[in-house]
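Pilot study result, target chain (435 residues):
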Amino acid sequence: MSEQDPIERRLGDSGLPALPRTAWLEVDLDRLVANLAAIRAVLPAGVRVHAVVKADAYGHGAVAVARALEAAGVDGFCTATFDEALELRDAGVHAPVVVLYATPVGHLAEAARRRIALTVADATLLARTLDAIRDDHEAAWPRRRVGLHLEVETGLGRDGLAPAEVAAAARAIRGTRGARLDGVWSHLAAPEDRAGSPAQAAAFAGAIGLLDEARVRVRPRHLAASGGVLAASAPAHDAVRVGLAMYGLVPDALVSDRAARASIRALAPVASLHALPVRVADLPAGHGVGYGPSFVTDRPSRIATLPIGYADGWSRGLEGAPVLVRGRLVPTVGRVSMDSVTVDVTEVPGPPVTVDDEFVLFGTQGPAVLGAELLARHRATIVYEIVSGLGRRLTRVYHAAARIEGMRTLTMEVPRWHGSRRGAATSANSRSTRS
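Predicted structure:
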């Protein structure tokens, strides 16, 4: 079996059910693990790698991604929201998890119980958090503590305590029974900025210096995310938070230093987006296609309809974007609708395109490559938005070692990723998730 075999055959050979709809995202877990190794190769020895799996692991599927990375030895995970962290714990992920944005105080007991660290970035919210811990600790969870990370404002202008506030905040956490100071961090505004990033790094170092003067020793200290690692524009400290680079996507603006270039070249995109047509029809000249219509054929045309639309993350701003079929770039035409997009396949060589032809909306098809970065440029946005915007209803198909290992739809996830990423779905798992 190869990735060139029809998707239904590949799923059947792996003991998996048919797709609920013929549009799907393929996620290569081997590439994901290789990207982790490439990132580690550019870091000083002992620096921890915390994978950022917020926004459903940038659209790739948080549970499957986290289980694969945990099996490969990643040091921890970062999410944006508390319920994203709960999703990992519910799936059996045991590695450390830190939530990067504020969490309402009503979840403190569960955070302590589930070993989920929280971020505090505002003095008022910190005071409310510590008050709630004091009020609830003895009665609700006397033998557990809430891990807190302090975020420092170093120039992003969006989140974080001022450096001068950090020492007092750290002492307040240390002085609260039921709270534990688990880390201190900041975030770069423009990692490619060779002037601004060192200034932020200096501000972060200043905050750490104030903590040292106050005799507060706290680790891990983390500043660099994917951009800081790839551009080598900030110290690694104890840990780095790697999101986009983990998925093999490198923004065009980042220029890595010479030492990092070989490993950066080793990064490969983890996901590719595919679809089979739900209709292929010959239309006469002068025929409208889609709403409006914004496109009218100027010649007899063969039009393929793919079952993916803006509800799946294929934005209306991608009208006219190219896709691949038979290794050839062809244009989408007409307005993108909620559930479909249309493609002009009139000039594809060979026999006429049919409903059996597989399209690639980003990824590779034979020697042809269509990167998600090209779609981002077409839409005048960034690649983060392209991948993280992929809708939940879009089936994720996971494979490694040339074999499909699982899939996720709205109604099931097979396997449930509680075991090794190499473990194929058991018949019991398959029954339980299909019932």
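One observation from the pilot: The first helix runs from residue 7 to 13. A full batch analysis is planned for the follow-on phase.
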